[in-house]
Every structure is written in structure tokens, then in C-alpha cells.
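Good morning N.,

You mentioned wanting to compare the apo and holo forms, so I went ahead and generated the holo version with beta-D-galactofuranose. This is what I fed in:
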Amino acid sequence: MKKTIALLLLAALLLTGCAGKGTPTGEKLIRVGFSQVGAESDWRMANTASMIGALCEENGFELLFDNAKQRQENQLLAIRNFIQQDVDYIVLAPIAESGWEDVLHEAAAAGIPVILVDRQIAAAYKDLYVTWVGSDFQAEGEQILRWLEEKLEQEGRASEPLRILHIQGTDGATAQIGRTAALNNAVARHPNWSVAAVLPGEYTEAKSYELVRDYLKEDRDIQLIYSENDNMSFGAMRALDEAGISYGPGGDVMILSFDAVREALRLCLDGKLDACAECNPLHGPRVAALIRQMEEGRTPGKLNYVLESVFTQSDLSPAFLEAREY
Ligand code: GZL
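and this is what came out, ligand included:
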């Protein structure tokens, strides 16, 4: 994993022009405090590499980076520290949608604009940040579930019972809320679909492995795993291997996964995952551009969605994987 991070960081630095060149024309650096959720997944590592790569000195930024280790209290501490240090901008990747009102009021009182990246915060706080960039998580779920519905229809399996093991991301995270809503709406559309269990995998491989391993000891009658990120899919696959249950196209259990990091796409190409919903983590250049807009006195749009796809085996090739940035 450490090697992956280093390679990701190097790639981000090279791709964003931040590889050892001097500061342009000696301009004053824009000081940015970035509170990151943690390092819980390959997606998060790629997101961090992209942010660090874009918000670097060569691009005119001084970045104060904090890894909250998946604890909201650490994010609150980091934001208060950024306020103390009187940064020019605060960038927040909020671990969950609630709990931000007090600290964002403090940032507003200090006159420091807040930019959100990735997940969102509750709509009630919409006046406490300037702009957000990230994914439409419910649309990701709707896209991959539409693919599943078409697949089952084509295979004449549309009316067969479908018991679903739902491995959920961090409770209250926008990604969890959206992806879960898409599944629940799909289950409501199909009387022959049911959610056998919801496992709180917290977006980590280790937690997902433990939960799925223990669940399969009680119930093996599962036809689909709906996993809200790739790392939880990896953990589930380990548990399925140990239980002697096959998965992927033609296997006992279908797996739908979110993020579409390179390792997941490789497994999809190898026929181990049925579909991967893309969740693009490369927000660094997007956040840098939003800050530049604000530096020029322009107010960006409130919500900036990135466009994303669903990948299946027929979309993939070794060259396609090689060309992916993450
Ligand atoms: C989604 C992001 C989620 C990813 C996980 O944008 O918030 O958090 O899907 C990550 O991999 O941990």
C-alpha cells in the first residue's frame, strides 16, 4: 500500500506540473488548509494524491494537510487549527453530513471561505460553504443497478429471487446515503428482490472481510453482493474464497462495486467482479480551479458534479487499465 501511495503521489505531481519546478514569478502563495477523511481506501489515497499534487507550491499554493483518520473530531480540530493559522481557504472532505454547524460558523466569523470536496454536508448548512465538487452518488447506484436489471432481463432471470447482501459505507456519509437510496429504490421496484442483511463495512477491506466471513457462517443463500466501495468488495471476496463460494460473472454470487479503482477494474477484467461504478477521486485540479475563480473575484456554482461511468468486463482491456490514473 505504501508503494501505491508513493506512486500515486509521484503521478499526481508529474501530471499537475508540480515536480520540482520553482514557484512561478515569486507570487504570494495561497494558503489552503485541507481536512481529509483518512486513508481508509484506495479511492481515498488517490484523492489525497490528487489534492496534494494540485495544491502545491509550484502551482502557487501552500497546503496545510490533515488526515483525520476517519474521526470527525479530528476534522473539527484541524479546521480550528486552520482558523488559528489564518489560512486563506479551508477545504473539507466531510466524513459525514452532520456535525459541522459550530465549526463552520467559526470559519465564517474568521472570514475564511470553505470549499467542500467529495461528500457533502447537510443542506441546512448550505450557507456555510461557498462551493462543492464531487460525485452524484445516488446516480452511481442507479446506473449500476440499471445495468443489473438489463443483465437479469437478458438472461431470463428477472423474476428469480434475488437475496442481496448490502455492504454499506460509513453511516451518514453522502456516498453511503446516495448508494443506499439507489439500492432501496431498486428493491422497492422488484418484489422478488430482498436485502438479506446490511453490513456496516466503513469502506475498509478489513471490516468488510470480518463481517462477511461471520455472516456467511449463518446464511449462504445470497445471489448478489452490493458493496459501496471496492475495498469492501476485496474483503468480501476474501471471505467468499474461504467459504468456497464462487463470484463474478457465471459464479454463485454477483458483485456490484463502487469506485472503479485500478485493482477493482483488473478483477472485473479477470471475471471476478460483475460491474464497477466509477467514482472519480481526481478532485485536486478541480479544487485548485475553484480557488483560482474565487481569487479572481468570481463565485463558482454551488454544486459541481463530475461525470462518471459503469465498467463491466467488455469495457476493459490491459491497455485501458494501464492508462488509468488511479
Ligand atoms: C466517495 C468517497 C468514498 C469512496 C470510498 O466519493 O467518499 O469514501 O467510495 C471512500 O472508497 O472511502
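Residues 40-41, 43-44, 118-119, 135, 173, 175, 203, 229, 258-259, 279 surround beta-D-galactofuranose (CB under 6 Å).

Happy to go through it together on a call whenever suits you.

Best,
F.
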